[in-house]
Amino acid sequence: MISQKLVKKLADKKYRVETGLFFVEGRKSIFELLDSDFDIVAIYGTSDFILAIEKQLLSLKKEVAGVIQSCISVTEETLVKIGTLKSNNAGIAIAVQKKKVSLEHILDVAKTDIVLVLDDVHDPGNLGSIIRTADWFGVTHMVTSETTADLYNPKTIAATVGSFTRVSVTSLALSEFLESVREHGIPIMGALLDGKNIFDSKTAKHGVLVMGSESHGINDELKQYISDAVTIPRFGNAESLNVSVATAVLLAELRRVHI
Amino acid sequence: MISQKLVKKLADKKYRVETGLFFVEGRKSIFELLDSDFDIVAIYGTSDFILAIEKQLLSLKKEVAGVIQSCISVTEETLVKIGTLKSNNAGIAIAVQKKKVSLEHILDVAKTDIVLVLDDVHDPGNLGSIIRTADWFGVTHMVTSETTADLYNPKTIAATVGSFTRVSVTSLALSEFLESVREHGIPIMGALLDGKNIFDSKTAKHGVLVMGSESHGINDELKQYISDAVTIPRFGNAESLNVSVATAVLLAELRRVHI
Prior knowledge:
Two copies of one chain form a homodimer. Chain A is an alpha/beta fold. Chain A has helices at 4-9, 13-19, 27-34, 47-59, 65-69, 76-82, 103-110, 124-136, 154-160, 174-183, 220-223, 243-257, and strands at residues 21-25, 40-45, 71-73, 91-96, 114-118, 141-144, 168-171, 188-197, 207-211, 228-231. In chain A, strands 7-6-5-9-8-10 form a six-stranded parallel sheet. The interface between A and B is large, with 36 and 36 residues.
C-alpha cells in the first residue's frame, strides 16, 4: 500500500530514485498510462473516476480486477493535497519507472531511424514538450544528459500529455554515448547557429540529432562529435529559438525530406 | 516618479490597463528595450546595472541623460520584492504600452506577408514563445483574440526574450477581423487536424495563419473563415502538438517554400 505521504514525497527526485516509482496526474494522462505497459501500483481517485477507469479498462480489453483493487477513493481536496496540480477532479496514479534501455538497442535504432539527444535541457516543461513532439514525429528513442530535467518529474510527465508512455528516454553520460555512436559510423547531427541551412542541405535519414541547452546550445565538449551541424535559417531578428521549438522544426524537416 | 508599490501592481492586468504601463525584468530584456522605440518611464536597477545601461546606450549611440535620470538604484532584494522573478541581479524597467496598430495597416501587411493570428492561447509562456518564433521567422504582425493571454503579462514578456520589441501584437475581436480579411480577398490559412498536408500542398505566400487554443483548436465560430486548412502530418501517436510548437513548424514551412 502506497501511503498518501509517500505519493507527496514522489514529487521529489530523491524519493523517486529511492523507490523507483513516479506518479501521473489527471484524467488524460492516467488513461494513457492504463493503455501502456507501465506497471501501476496504486491509483488515488475520486469515486467517479474509479468507475471511469473500470470502463476504460473494459474498452481497452484489459484485465480490470488488479487495477481496480489498487484504487483508493479520495476527495478532490486530497488529490490536490498529495499532488502538484492546482485542481484535480480525476486522480493520481503511482507507477513503476521503466528499466533503462541498453546502449546496444539505442545504437541499433540509430542505424535506421532518428534518435533524439538532449544536452542540458533544464526545464521540465521543455523536456515534456519535446517528448510530445518526438512522439508526433514518430521518434521512439531519446537520450538525455545527466544534467537534463528528470523524465519522471511531475511537470515533465504533465507536459508530455501522455507521450511518456510511447517514447523511451534514457539518461546517459553524453560524451561516452556519442563516442560509441561515432565508433559505429552513425551520423551525428547537431543544432548549431553556424551549421548548414537545414532547408537546403542533404540530411541523413538516420542517426542521432543533438539539441543543446536553452541558454548555451551544445556543450563545447560535445561539439567535436557533431558530423553534420545544421541550422534553422533566420528570417527576422530573434537571437535564438526555444529549444522545444527548434527541435520540432528540425524533426519536421528531417521527416519531410525522407517521407 | 513610479513608486515601488505601483511597479508591483503592474504584474496585475487591471493596473496595466488603468495606467497604460508595463514592466520588463532582467538584463537581456531591458537591453532589448533600450534598443527599441518603447518609451521608458523608469528603471529600478542595481548600481552596477545602471552603469551597464549607460554603457549600452553609448554603444547604441542613443541619448543617455533622459534614461539615466529615470534610473533608481535599489538592491537585488528590492528587485525580487517588486518584480516577479525569483532572482534578479539587474533591474526592472517600466515602459509605456504601444498604441494599437490599425486594422488597415494589418490588412496591408497581410496582402504581401504572413500575419499570425492566435485564437484563445491562454498560457502567457506559449504566447511569449510564439512571439519569439514569429520574430525568428520574420513575422512582424500578430493579431490575438481578446481571450488570448496579455502581451504585457510579465511571463509573456519574459518568454519573448526581447522579441516583444520587434513583433507588433494587436488584440481584436477575431470574427470581425477575419470578416474584413475575407472581404479583402486575403487567404486565410488555419491549422486544423483534418486540413491539407502542409508538406505537399501549395501554400499561400501571404495572408493570415490562424492557430487555435491549446486544448480546443480553432473555435467553431471562426472555422467558417478558413480558406486553406493545413495540417502537420503525424508520423507517431501523440494526439496533438503544443500550440507554440505547431506554429513554429508551420511558419518554418511557409518560409521554406517561399524563400
